[in-house]
Amino acid sequence: MSFLYGELLQTLRTLLKRYISSEYNIDEEIKSEPEDEYESTEEDFLETGMEDLPKYINEVSAILDRSDAWRELAKRLHQDTLLNWYEKLPSPTSVLLAQVKDSHDNYSSRSLAMILNDMGEMEAANIIYRCLD
């Protein structure tokens, strides 16, 4: 893609140079823009802040599923409109956490641990904190 862009840019420069030279009788070199030092990749847009989720999802899900604390977590993560759907699943917490990760919201593993800590779910929060170190 960048090759085509570069080729197109070069063609436009040549045409513009010819036009300006013939129109205004100028024979100056047209300066190009400097190249970007940083080339973004698709990975730059896929990071969510919950990359550590696979390390702790099973343990945290078991705790929150057992205590039904996933309901409060869903509310705090603004996913409570799906409570009826979550409760029909074998592990509501694991689906909830996977959805939050895939939604690209501004949640990180650290912020999730802080929410769980605030909910009084210290055991689940500590599991996440251990995975972050």
TrEMBL record:
Residues 60-130 form the Death domain. GO terms for biological process: signal transduction. It holds the Pfam family Death. It comes from the Eukaryota. This is Death domain-containing protein. It comes from Eumeta variegata.
